[in-house]
Protein 1
Amino acid sequence: PELPYAPDALEPHVSAETLSFHHGKHHKAYVDKLNAAIAGTAYEGQTLEKVIAESHAAADTGVFNNAAQAWNHTFLWHSMSPAGGGAPAGPLADAINSKFGDLAGFRDAFKRSALGQFGSGWTWLVLTAEGLDITNTGNAETPLSDGVTPLLTLDVWEHAYYLDYQNKRDAYVDAFLSNLINWEFAASNFDNKRAAA
Ligand code: FE2
């Protein structure tokens, strides 16, 4: 999929150079490798979510890693917005306050989780049967495999921030939480899941 905004739309927090490599090279490579891997197999023509579930169950890591990374990155682009930052509204805001005390409590917990991920991976706000939670996944892993509903994510692979922040993951996480986080996307995922339930 195309980016939902121009490559320079997230500047200065994520540079056009980072976004062009991240979307045009990294994300594209996962999609291209997935398409090559599933050609002529039972996966071909399935939804991406079904390919993720079936390759995960079969420990078919070559397919799973590329399928999950294709999905995770599309979800990431929507988790950021040029008009991001600020605070959630509506039922999601109530759930954030109930779980984390207030928005500052959420930010502290999300940042602690993102900085605690050793090596490559992802930090997620998810909706479980018990309510909101923050979780990390390593490498290509996705919370879809755990039966929970992702609400938003941040990519903490170095390729997501190294050109702009070098080794300073904490500054990248701060920039995301203050300026980019797309609360409307998270609220839409939250409301859709609750309506379905
Ligand atoms: Fe990435």
Protein 2
Amino acid sequence: MTDTTSPPYRSGFIAVVGRPNVGKSTLMNYYLGQKIAIVSDKPQTTRHKQLGIVTREDAQVIFVDTPGLHEPRNELGKYMVETAARALIDADAILFIVDVSVPPGPSDERIAQLITDKPGATPVVLALNKMDKLKPEDVLPFSNAYRLLVPAAQWFLISAKEGYNLDDLLTAIVGALPEGPALFPEDEVTLTHLRDLAAEFIREAALHLLEQEVPHGLAIEITAYQERSGGLTYISADINVEREAHKRIVIGKSGQMLKAIGTSAREEIAKLLEKQVYLELHVKTRKNWRSDAREVQRLGYRAEK
Ligand code: GDP
Ligand code: MG
């Protein structure tokens, strides 16, 4: 008799879906071991589709982070929902992440509907996240309520923040992927261009430092990205806001806010690039850009073919 052979190599795309703020980016960052997706406590942080690639001995998992699926209220919202829906269609498997510390809401139900309506038998893995916040008496009722939304899914109680049960979840994700060779070089962590990442870091810094209303109207445009001598990277960017009043807020009293955003973003970008970074920021008003389809496109939120 033959000995046991090693398991077949598996690879594929797994769409990461879930309403905003459930911990999708936190989970992906954990698996990628590097800060790729953007984490924030404000919803709708992830606007673009982001790929994160984890290569192991036995598998290559390509995570597709999606913008939150929600009711679109403007052109940007529409773009975000379309991107997420497309990721779902293209995926080999689906990772549905929910916040198990609260019962399911209408958004969770809508996403579950999208998943279960999908033609073909795409495997679904359900991650019941934030179990660290779960009260003992809520464990059963809340997790059962989510499990009922996607009855065919394999499910796991996890904490993306505390790293709980994430190895078991990853093993299940690998098991859900088809057999096949690696699709990307093994040292590739993300396909998102460094330039785009720099823009996302600037947005993240702004999100953390600014008050509620302004952040969702922000769009970052990288106007220059140059490798200069002495290992210095020069980056110039526009922070586009929707109103004059917002521009004043982003700049702050004697430029203090803009300076703080710049310092924080520069440190993050430098960490990522492992290089010295010179960052120049300008604030521009583009009236109500989120409601203008052409402006939304021009700022980089193009639907992919
Ligand atoms: P996304 O919008 O789904 O990508 O969510 P994020 O990854 O940006 O996370 C939203 C917020 O939830 C952040 O403040 C995270 O720190 C927090 N968070 C994520 N996972 C957990 C978890 O397992 N436990 C707790 N307590 N907080 C979490
Ligand atoms: Mg996110």
Protein 3
Amino acid sequence: MTDLSIKTDAQSQDHEATDGFQLVIDALKLNGIDTIFGLPGIPITDLTRRAQANGMRVISFRHEQNAGNAAAIAGFMTRKPGICLTVSAPGFLNGLTALANATTNCFPMILISGSSEREVVDLQQGDYEEMDQLAIARPLAKAAFRVLHAEDIGVGIARAIRAALSGRPGGVYLDLPAKLFAQSVDAEAGRSSLIEVVDPAPRQIPAHDAVQRALDLLRGAKRPLIILGKGAAYAQADADIRALVERSRIPYLPMSMAKGLLPDTHEQSAAAARSYVLPQADVVMLIGARLNWLLSHGKGKTWGGKQAKAWGGQRFIQVDISPQEADSNVRIDAPLVGDIGSCVAALLAGMDASWPRPPAQWLAAIAERKDKNIAKMTETLAQNPTPMNFHSALNVVRDIVRANPHAYLVNEGANALDFTRSIVDMYQPRKRLDVGTWGVMGIGMGFAVAAAVVSGEPVIAIEGDSAFGFSGMEVETICRYGLPVCVVIFNNNGVYRGTDLNPTGGSDPAPTAFVKGARYDKLMEAFGGVGVHATTPAQLRAAMEDAIRTRKPTLVNAMIDETAGTESGRITSLNPASAKKK
Ligand code: ADP
Ligand code: TZD
């Protein structure tokens, strides 16, 4: 094999020396990290080459934000921090959105950026791509570190791994100035400076009295409900979570990325009766889910409002690793602080055969709503209008996912997101990867690349046409690495829909309108992938089946009725104009 290692002067004179490049690679490998998502350039180009030469997988992107998103979701999938490697200043800033998003979503990742020398940055002497990156990253990351000396690389990487994984996971920034990489260190001293992190995500055992408090509250509930969040999915305590739900017989709601933790077709799933169970439940147990905007902050009409107050209000149990999360929006009556695996095991241990079945009336009321809503949806999905709409297209996606439960489903957009979430059932844990806590556009292709690289399984990415645009250039990356990714663009000619007009009658299009009938499929063809223009559900089905069977990079441009979308999908109410009307 060609020797790609770039030797410093010191190394050529002394074979017992190592350098900063090598120590970064060795430290990552020592900790079981085998993949880097990044984009090369000064000063990290040789780091990418040498990482590859040292047997690591280096996935090179077209924009750092997508590499960062890939690293973040790899962290979610594997419980090892995903690594994103960027150049300084602009490359670093491009990666920063993904780092902040990872922190917000509790995904473990490490953004490693090369940087200019401290002496020049601190005197603001105008270096190539000069920026005080550490200061900028700090408020957006769970932790941020800089390493100045090669012998500290081991400590720097160890601290970054620990910070990313322990407690509530998050994004960590690691600043590596250019000079560090070429620093020469005695090989033995270098080796012994590296740290293999022991127990980076220590279990946090919940206190006995906190477990009892939670169990007592749950036992006395008349209308109990469990909400599973992406923290529960991340915890990889799948069998125990399922046992807890099934032993307690309590109906549950999965948050978006917790779909599939139990199959969505499970009889205890109350997803199809969401708007009924949230306001009616008297005791709600949150497992790895925050009471943020996605759950209407635990109050207001969604949660029963005044009506619930009349019967004493709703009570909450919250299982979370963060001791600060409880009471963030409403009172938490029984906080259960610990890692989800340990908490769920402790709850299960307290549920013996005498555990009461939830009142039959509650279960029957939910079943009735569920059946009604499912029947209504089945009817809607069976329609076959021309042009195709979200429902007729998603009816196809639903079948394809049912037939391929091992496939990953990446999803972003507004209507394309909301309809997919509610229509497409998931059957296995951690298979649905989406816009998460921020509702951020642009995760699509980064998530799709990482899902395919990490798992080797087929990936289906359901994308609004606007959403796709944020990371669309990565179809080249998908083709370059030959990944089994099938991108389906729901093309309705614009943001939310394609019908807006410029009210002045001027020639500029409306802010939300795109080129009509854009041929996104040609973009995939440009790089050697398969592009399909689909105007009917039958064409969409055939293209998706082919993509899954052949594992060829595929982009299906699914033409959707441009009048079909609603403003902001399901969150129209958050638009300031709608808020004013309230
Ligand atoms: P969702 O958006 O699905 O509702 P959130 O991201 O709001 O989920 O909540 C995830 C929660 O899970 C966070 O509060 C986080 O602290 C918690 N969490 C993450 N990992 C673990 C774990 N291993 N054990 C316990 N809690 C965890
Ligand atoms: N920029 C970023 C980074 N994130 C965002 N969420 C937005 C802008 C605002 N936004 C949404 O919240 S959804 C969306 C934007 C631009 C795109 C919706 O259009 P789409 O999907 O074509 O992707 P639908 O199916 O047509 O609604």
Protein 4
Amino acid sequence: MFDTVLVANRGEIAVRIIRACREMGLASVAVFSDLDRLSPHVLAADKAVRIGPAPASESYLRGDHLIEVALSEGAGAIHPGYGFLAERASFAAAVEKAGLVFIGPSPESIQAMGDKTEARRRMAEAGVPIIPGALEPTSGPEEAAETARELGFPVLLKPVAGGGGKGMRVVSDEDELPGAFESASREAESAFGKSAIYVEKYLARPRHIEIQILGDQSGAVVHLGERECSIQRRHQKLIEESPSPVLEPADREAMGLAAVQAARAVDYRGLGTVEFLYEDGEFYFLEMNTRLQVEHPVTEFVTGLDLVQWQIRVALGESLDFSQEDVSFSGHAIECRITSEDADQGFLPATGCIDRLEIPSGPGVRWDGGIRAGSEIGLHYDPLLGKLIVHAATRTAAIARMKRALGELVIHGVETSVPFHLRVMDEDDFGKGDFTIAYLEDHPELLRPSEGDVRLLALVAALLEHGAWGRVGAAGIKELDGRKLSAWQTSGWPWQT
Ligand code: ADP
């Protein structure tokens, strides 16, 4: 059917897809903007084609151009990755119209799930529990107020075409509603080109738990367990894990069944994720992402399946060679998203040139990265530099392993979110698995360096000043605030102890 895949993306996910192609004996064509000329995905692919200047609108988002490149390079399929064109039904349709294979679901499935109110209607019909609220876009602030009174405040105003947490507004009483409606519509219009808003009940302290599903072209669908994604900032995921620390086997089975039902309701094929909010033992459909997810590696670790290869195999027309009963789960996996955001300055976007990069290794550690030494980090694209994923027998062991691996990760030249992740790994509620999507509101201290970090930094600065770095051990300073200093190195972050 096809032996060459054009990867219409960049960064870590493009590298991930190219690796899967190579292992499957498929050739890969990378595409790149001027800024990405020497990026890892370009170097990893069999071939690479320049598609335009840095702005995504002039490169990675030019669907028609990408299709032309695929045709002229002899690629028979396009893998969209995530973001960019991955959930544009019109792009999937144009790919198919050009006689190419779109590695993803049908344009109809993307369309049905991309419109949040249509998705809610389809799910309600299929018997999947949805968050209480409207099934149609709201005509204006008055109707929104009426729905809100029926549901009870607080409510959430959400763009029908939403994504990336944009345009949502929590409204806690009626007086706030007109203003919030106005600003949500405006933001939705500018982010998605559609101002339509709908109203749903705002759940105060749910967890975000999602189910990975995989379907083939004959209609077989299995679920591959859950991912706990409650550790978020501004509705964007920071840390994901599998299994969830709270799901009982019966919950897992019920949510898995609901996810499979959701997929069947839109004739889903390939990889997809059904997201739920989970509160007090109840779960509610949030949305379905009709693509490969950033956090897929945690599922790969606990199931032992290669999800990207399966996605491609389904696109090649292969049937699943296993059933739900054959899916088994082993151990615990955690992923930290490593971004070019300054964890000590409120996640301020950071830029710079990576002059040194050291990647952790050892048992149960995986790095999916899109950077190398020499990479220029600007503001044109998503700040995700890479993902650090660990796997161990238990959650406690996985946390210890993540701390060890974060300690070994050295990224010099740009501020990153690594210090934040280290603080979370040390935090008690995280350790106990006791958290909701309000975790960072409950723990604002995690957004700044701790006093211990600052003292460590001061000590490091003093030692450096005196050229005494190599003599930390000799000086007898082995511990500060209970943190061992033995693994220090001049290249590492000072708080990597
Ligand atoms: P988007 O498509 O913009 O990413 P989602 O519907 O997937 O939006 O929601 C993103 C996040 O917003 C969720 O993970 C959750 O943290 C929060 N959220 C969404 N809907 C609700 C709700 N009804 N109540 C509370 N939090 C919500």
